[in-house]
Design goal:
The chain has 478 residues and is of the alpha/beta class. It has 14 helices and 15 strands. The chain has a six-stranded mixed sheet, sandwiched between helices. The protein is elongated, with a radius of gyration of 28 Å.
Length: 478
Amino acid sequence: MKYFNTILETVGSTPLVKLNKVTKGLKPLILGKVEVFNPGGSVKDRPSIRMIEEAEKNGLLKPGGTIIEPTSGNTGTGLAQIAAVKGYRCILVVPDKVAQEKINLLRAYGAEVVVVPTSVSASSHESYYSVANKLTAEIPGAFQPNQFANPNNPEAHYLSTGPEIWDQTDGKITHFVATMGTGGTISGTARFLREKNPKIRIIGVDPEGSIYSGDLAASYKVEGIGEDFIPRNAELKLIDEFVRVSDKDSFTMGRRLAREEGLLCGGSCGTAVVAALKISQDLSENDVVVVLLPDGGRGYLSKMYSDEWMRDNGFMPAPEYSYLAADLLDRKKGRGKISPLIVVHPEDTIQATINAMELHGIDQLPVVTEDGHNVGHINDVIAMQVVYERKDPSKTTVGSVMGRPFPQFDINAEIDQIYKSFRLGNAMVVITKENKACGVLTKFDIMSHLREKISSSDQVLSTKEERKPKAEKAKLGA
């Protein structure tokens, strides 16, 4: 007969799964290390079991004792499961941004949950670190694993996660991508992989608002990753590169993983995959990228998988504002006066460019090759500089003086993605279809669209107000 003595023996040995649809157009093999296959549903099961077993060996945790830990949920789940099997009391201190599903899950294992505010500094007496320390000091027989400083956290990954990835890729891994919270996962795994092959690049992924990548500490919605201090377990010298990812991009990619890859993942998985795709743009078909997917998505059904929550937090446009680039191009054509695509080619002269600008009353144009690729831009300042430097504009080519290309977006991109580009200071974007330029959009096009939507909404409200008295009179007459 084949069986495990307890559920705790099933920790580890999680699969590598190839990502297929979200990686379209990229050359390297990109593999997800799917940690939801652990019994507690996350990568945190690995350090949880090791920290408790080592504490038992060293007499720090004895029968009848209490496990206390500050956690965003996943480490807490691992500890709560261990406490249930081994008969310990378990008290978990969680920040108030943690999804209710996670809190319910902790309680389902029999743990006691203390919820504290997120919007306080690590040194505040209300922070989840301070509250956990206070409870540990007050309760007899209490033990705090302290995943932020306990060396058994990274050691668990050195002994399990790293060897598994090395064996599963047959030693062919070239890049390891992981989000950073306590620092244990990336540090322990990186240390093992680097011992096997010093050339493996380690990519640390950080949410906007975390200080790992040099940002000022600020609030963010992704759970379980990033910090407002540098934990002892974070070996930053092992990290070759940091990639910062926004909440919106994290949640959007997390939802894509569920709908396109069948992987119901948490927000931090989306964070990690966004970074993996970004660094893969410059890699070859000989590269093997392993991206660690920390947990599953069942603990986030009321948050990132809720359209209402996504809209309320500004991560998804309301239906009436949900338009694609293609829709705006069609509206632009409908105005009739301007072609949706006016371009110049690299071999065109500056004189021809000036003539085109004067003809259409515009001061900047994208530079597109004959086969439709967006390669640069030209504007009135560049043209004026040619004349100022006494160059012959009829002999100076656009390609010899053009600036960098305008940002480009696929024709099926949502306008809120394009808006973000304008917010960064870009004046124009190029719209592509099958990677070939098919139109341009400006700030004016976005503003015209929004003005029409606002006017339409006001008109609907006005009509409702006009009808209201009539409806009331009809009711009274009846």
